[in-house]
């Protein structure tokens, strides 16, 4: 591992100043992703700014029933918070579906959103990879891509974003707050991750040196009836092959409001807006749920070895929405 300078920040402006404009410096949250990548040489920061002592570890009410979640809140504390469990249950389920208890005790909200892809070529520094070494190529397109993207990818990168938490936050229109030397800013999660295009190494719209300070969940009554379902190779301690965060408000058998986001299918958590449009005002039946999934997945461009993901996602959408509709009818 390359030698690095370690600093611990006590306040937000101090953290931003310590990082400065140095492209070789990194913030350290729980370290559960960054430190692993440093050990393998994927990340080689010259300076680490530890943000865990910052006063960003609280979850507070925001607006009319929304929540403001500090960037250093741990995954465990987020999942256990009564306001999250009651008002955004899919978020609790998504967080608990990720990693392990020990990792969730360390991992932070900011770090979870910025964790890097698990593509095996990205994490192996002996291989080419456009995301790690721009212009070197993408061996996954013709190589190992069973778990790679079916939506929104490009020939330059077909990796997926690994976060479970991010899928639920995307379904609920979360907004990311950040701080830079020029002052604070905000980005809706929908605009936070950049399209892949020919610059897969540029992952987010955060300005250089930005410190994530928190995430705001706007009030969303529909989220109270929500669910996260994740398919993975093992029952625990495994990343998603596909996942769905869904929320449904049904009245008189008709969909009044719906939120749907898909995980492990694209370089970002994927908001299923085409599916939402099909469903709003439609009968809450399996037939319409399938039509909605088809509308979203019409844009899928699977690779030779990951076509199964399209079928998987269709089935997941139908099962999650059917369960929510049944619950609403009780
Ligand atoms: C074995 C294993 C299994 C896992 N399984 C899952 C899973 O199933 N689902 C899932 O979603 N995740 C999973 N994870 C990933 C885990 O959730 C992430 O490693 C974790 O959320 C990252 O949070 P962290 O605070 O440790 O981030 P760090 O490792 O500290 O940082 C990650 C990145 O974020 C940056 N960063 C951190 N905080 C900030 C901030 N406030 N502002 C700006 N930049 C910041 C860092 O510079 C770094 O680039 C798994 C991890 C492991 C090791
Ligand atoms: S899919 Fe993306 S991360 Fe994986 S090898 Fe290709 S460029 Fe790299």
Automatic annotation (TrEMBL):
Domain FAD-binding PCMH-type positions: 1-222
Keywords, sorted A to Z: Oxidoreductase
SUPFAM superfamilies linked: CO dehydrogenase flavoprotein C-terminal domain-like (SSF55447), FAD-binding/transporter-associated domain-like (SSF56176)
Keyword Oxidoreductase: yes
UniProt xrefs under InterPro entries: CO_DH_flav_C, CO_DH_flav_C_dom_sf, Diverse_Substr_Oxidored, FAD-bd_PCMH, FAD-bd_PCMH-like_sf, FAD-bd_PCMH_sub1, FAD-bd_PCMH_sub2, Mopterin_DH_FAD-bd
Gene Ontology MF term list: FAD binding; oxidoreductase activity
Protein's name in the database: Molybdopterin dehydrogenase
Species name: Streptomyces toyocaensis
